[in-house]
Specification:
This protein is mainly beta. It is built from 1 helix and 6 strands. It has one helix spanning about 35-45; strands at about 5, 10-15, 20, 50-60, 65-70, 75-85. Strand 1 (about 5) and strand 2 form a beta hairpin.
């Protein structure tokens, strides 16, 4: 069970909350001036880092207010919680630690390549 500390209500179970995506994402000033590709990028392209990340949350089954929190996505550790409209607190971003000992970014197999069937065969 993951407990989220609502800045208005206190600590509650995650089942009471709705995830709102990346925090501090500003809407374009003039969306009509954007190309279709730029507008689609704003609507659908999101960062999804492994590590420290600022997120928006909605306390749907409680006070019904929106707030932000900073969470380590590798461990689910909540590092800071703050009300919407407040600036993001400074958090020292450490590389995520994983119990399996895998590298912080990637699988460690970036240089490896598996040959596909038919590759390397003589013509």
């Amino acid at each position: 069970m993951l407990l989220i500390p609502c800045p208005y209500c206190g600590e509650r179970d995650i089942a009471e909350f709705g995830y709102g995506g990346e925090a501090h994402r500003a809407r374009p000033a003039d969306p009509a001036a954007l190309s279709d590709a730029e507008w689609a990028g704003y609507l659908f392209m999101r960062r999804n880092p492994k590590g420290v990340f600022a997120e928006r949350w909605h306390h749907a089954a409680g006070c019904r207010r929106w707030f932000n929190l900073v969470r380590d996505t590798a461990t689910d550790a909540i590092l800071a919680v703050y009300k919407a409209g407040e600036p993001q607190p400074e958090i020292a971003a450490e590389p995520p630690r994983t119990p399996s000992g895998e590298p912080p970014i990637g699988s460690g197999n970036e240089g490896a390549r598996i040959a596909l069937p038919g590759e390397g065969d003589a013509p």
